[in-house]
Amino acid sequence: MQAHIVSDVTQTQVVSETEVSTVETPRRLDQRMHITTGSGWSPKVWLLLVVLAGALFLDGLDVSMVGVALPSIGDDLGMSSSQLQWIVSGYVLGYGGLLLLGGRTSDLFGRRRVFLVALGVFGVASVISAVVDVNALIIALRFIKGIAAAFTVPAGLSIITTTFAEGPARNRALSIYTVCGASGFSLGLVFGGLLTELSWRATLLFPGPLALLLFVVGMRVIPAVAAPSFRWAQFDVVGALTSTGSLLLLVFGVVRAPEIGWTAPVTLVTLVASAALMAGFVVAEMRHRLPLLRLGILRSVSLVQANISAALMFGGYVAFQFVVTLYLQQSLGWSPLSMALGFLPAGLIVALSATKMDKVLDRVPTQLLLIVGFTAFLLAYLWFARASAGTGYASFLLPTIILLGIGFAVTFPSVMSQGTAGVEDDEQGLASGLVNTFAQVGGAIMMAVVTAILTSSHQPVVPGQLLPGMQTAIWVVSGLSIVGLAGAVIVGARRRKSS
């Protein structure tokens, strides 16, 4: 390890193209940027981490924050429930559909360049979406923001993993980075509630100025290295088109299915086309000399498990959040501010854990952390399933919120760390894009499933009563945590036997 780690923190400063020979491989370039904890982290390194973690925080915040404002948006713009769903799903469609391409693009075209361009697009799209009144344009801008996030997330994560040496330094950086992302998801409901009290437009505008500020700071602190020499023959065009097309069709199909029906011809054709493109993608990757996704990376059991765990974790959380938001606002009549205060404990737990998770990751196996995290999620969902008409906050929601905070604080950094551990530097963008793709696709699928469950009865919402189909939706979400828990137990047992 020490043979390829730069021990002097001053060597983490910007490396210009004239200082680095372009004949060096991306792996060697990235190794020269590694730092250790021996000399501490300079202010510039901390600012770098703030920019990268801040971008992830805004990505997570944007997914959950706007959900609180949906009823207000619908009332103001006259949008139906199916149209409102696309404000969330449009973002997820762009995010989940292009994450894999975003990860590989950052490896091939330069992580700094890809990250900054995408961050700038995210900020500008946020500002524009807050001032327009055309429903279709708002949804289109949400899609563009999702695409931008699909490039900032893997590029940002790969900048971290190629800047901080594997071990304590990287664990510390990753724990701060991933917990900031988890904090964004958790605090999104809090920020969304507070901002919606001012205006629903504030929820769309809020990430914009912050993203543009991070862009300005990032221009100064993100290390500039000579981009690897690139030729179009190196780029897997067929793989890019088939993988992106397959994921876009999959997310589009499952998001639209609750509206037009799971057995509708359009739904079936969309899903079959997605499967066909994915089959074509596998064939293309087997034949290309420099594939978009090196299939050999999937031989790692721990990496595959991390990706599946990310899908189960995020899918369950997003679906549950959707159910709770509708229940509290439509049935119980909670105001956005009341929701913000109600969800505050979870956000605080996740945020306060940021300074501790690096030490936990150093000492505790990720399998054990996943067991703890999925257990907390399962208990949270089961406790909420006890909800009945007239049950007070302290009796049914507060324990759930606390358990959700514990689950996210433990599980989120664990899957991100495990999903990139042991991966070569020149494939870090691919690995981070892969784990985030699984998470977003899992979220889109479970949002569609839960929406279908809630709307299948065609019964109106009765004030003060449970939503039609709510109990079934909670049990389905609980099942995801059971699968994730079982996977962590099985893989952990196999590792103990082999050691």
UniProtKB/TrEMBL annotation:
<dbReference type="GO" id="GO:0005886">
    <property type="term" value="C:plasma membrane"/>
</dbReference>
<dbReference type="InterPro" id="IPR011701">
    <property type="entry name" value="MFS"/>
</dbReference>
<keyword id="KW-1133">Transmembrane helix</keyword>
<dbReference type="GO" id="GO:0022857">
    <property type="term" value="F:transmembrane transporter activity"/>
</dbReference>
<feature type="transmembrane region" description="Helical">
    <location>
        <begin position="147"/>
        <end position="164"/>
    </location>
</feature>
<feature type="transmembrane region" description="Helical">
    <location>
        <begin position="114"/>
        <end position="141"/>
    </location>
</feature>
<keyword id="KW-0812">Transmembrane</keyword>
<dbReference type="InterPro" id="IPR036259">
    <property type="entry name" value="MFS_trans_sf"/>
</dbReference>
<dbReference type="Pfam" id="PF07690">
    <property type="entry name" value="MFS_1"/>
</dbReference>
<feature type="domain" description="Major facilitator superfamily (MFS) profile">
    <location>
        <begin position="48"/>
        <end position="496"/>
    </location>
</feature>
<dbReference type="InterPro" id="IPR020846">
    <property type="entry name" value="MFS_dom"/>
</dbReference>
<feature type="transmembrane region" description="Helical">
    <location>
        <begin position="83"/>
        <end position="102"/>
    </location>
</feature>
<feature type="transmembrane region" description="Helical">
    <location>
        <begin position="334"/>
        <end position="354"/>
    </location>
</feature>
<feature type="transmembrane region" description="Helical">
    <location>
        <begin position="366"/>
        <end position="384"/>
    </location>
</feature>
<keyword id="KW-1003">Cell membrane</keyword>
<feature type="transmembrane region" description="Helical">
    <location>
        <begin position="235"/>
        <end position="254"/>
    </location>
</feature>
<feature type="transmembrane region" description="Helical">
    <location>
        <begin position="396"/>
        <end position="417"/>
    </location>
</feature>
<feature type="transmembrane region" description="Helical">
    <location>
        <begin position="202"/>
        <end position="223"/>
    </location>
</feature>
<feature type="transmembrane region" description="Helical">
    <location>
        <begin position="429"/>
        <end position="453"/>
    </location>
</feature>
<protein>
    <submittedName>
        <fullName>MFS transporter</fullName>
    </submittedName>
</protein>
<keyword id="KW-0472">Membrane</keyword>
<keyword id="KW-0813">Transport</keyword>
<feature type="transmembrane region" description="Helical">
    <location>
        <begin position="304"/>
        <end position="328"/>
    </location>
</feature>
<feature type="transmembrane region" description="Helical">
    <location>
        <begin position="473"/>
        <end position="493"/>
    </location>
</feature>
<dbReference type="InterPro" id="IPR005829">
    <property type="entry name" value="Sugar_transporter_CS"/>
</dbReference>
<feature type="transmembrane region" description="Helical">
    <location>
        <begin position="45"/>
        <end position="71"/>
    </location>
</feature>
<feature type="transmembrane region" description="Helical">
    <location>
        <begin position="260"/>
        <end position="283"/>
    </location>
</feature>
<feature type="transmembrane region" description="Helical">
    <location>
        <begin position="176"/>
        <end position="196"/>
    </location>
</feature>
